[in-house]
From TrEMBL:
Compositionally biased region (Basic and acidic residues): 8-28
Superkingdom classification of source: Eukaryota
Region Disordered: start-end pairs: 1-28, 57-86
Feature: compositional bias, Acidic residues: 64-81
Protein name: Uncharacterized protein
Amino acid sequence: MRTLLRLALEREKGTPREVERPRDRDTIRRERARGAAAAAAAAAAVTATATTAAVTAAESSFEWLEEKEVEEEEEEEEEEGEGRRMRMRMRMSIRMRERE
């Protein structure tokens, strides 16, 4: 009697066996294929992100090198300009002494 009552209660509530639908081979294959496709899409996204990051880093490095070269050229021009000014001052002071 208890067993029949228990079975009746389980049928009303629905046991996991009753709720879960039976899966055939095709359903399992489709689920696996969906999972594999999702994994491939995720891997492609990661690869694309890594590639983009590498390209961005390379571009940044190249830009940094260009900026560094420009800075060095400007410093050299500045130093050359200072050297010219110093030579002109020396010439002027020599001329001033000669005049005295």
